[in-house]
């Protein structure tokens, strides 16, 4: 009798072990599936444009700081700003991309870290602690070496060179126009090979006949 009970217990134990092994395999496959499925999703999320409205003056910055008192608003802005940064970039590059997406460069010329200035009085940027914490949180998620002291030094450096950075922005805008002119010149060169270039104003029907003659002449 005892032998039969022991045998049944042995069979039950073996069945339990087999079930546990099967569950472990299923969990492993599920983990692999979620890992693969999250990769493309993360990439697609990052490629979407951020809907964050850039802060252009001290009133908007003050209002933004007030909004961050609400955890829901922190989550909202965290999602919007996270799109700007990338895993493959360094913390410094992400920080520069983020600061230019959050704050207008002209605004940064009106701020200093502690509010002190040799010339005109400036706004004390370190007073906007929730804004700074959000900035740190966004960059830190991609590079954990970017800490609070790094964040403080970064903002001090940005505001120290804010005038130069603001001027550099305007220079880059003017360079873009030159590129447009070069592109227009390239288009003119490409159009030079068209058979109807140099012809006077003629009707579409005449142009079609000319195209046919030109095509037949080549063949």
UniProtKB/TrEMBL annotation:
Residues annotated as domain DUF4806: 55-137
Region (Disordered): 165-201
Matching Pfam families: DUF4806
Compositionally biased intervals (Basic residues): 165-182
Name listed for the protein in its UniProt record: Uncharacterized protein LOC126913018
Gene expressing this chain: LOC126913018
């Amino acid at each position: 009798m005892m032998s039969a009970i022991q045998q049944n217990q042995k069979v039950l134990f073996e069945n339990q072990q087999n079930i546990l092994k099967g569950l472990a395999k299923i969990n492993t496959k599920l983990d692999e599936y979620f890992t693969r499925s999250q990769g493309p999703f993360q990439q697609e999320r990052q490629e979407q444009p951020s809907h964050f409205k850039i802060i252009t003056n001290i009133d908007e910055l003050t209002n933004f700081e007030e909004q961050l008192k609400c955890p829901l608003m922190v989550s909202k802005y965290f999602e919007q700003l996270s799109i700007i940064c990338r895993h493959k970039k360094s913390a410094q590059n992400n920080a520069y991309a983020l600061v230019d997406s959050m704050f207008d460069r002209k605004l940064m010329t009106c701020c200093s870290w502690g509010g002190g200035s040799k010339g005109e009085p400036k706004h004390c940027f370190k007073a906007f602690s929730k804004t700074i914490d959000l900035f740190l949180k966004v960059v830190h998620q991609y590079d954990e070496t970017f800490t609070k002291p790094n964040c403080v030094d970064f903002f001090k450096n940005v505001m120290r060179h804010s005038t130069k950075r603001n001027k550099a922005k305007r220079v880059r805008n003017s360079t873009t126009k030159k590129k447009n002119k070069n592109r227009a010149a390239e288009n003119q060169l490409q159009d030079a090979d068209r058979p109807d270039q140099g012809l006077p104003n003629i009707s579409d029907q005449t142009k079609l006949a000319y195209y046919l003659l030109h095509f037949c002449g080549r063949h």
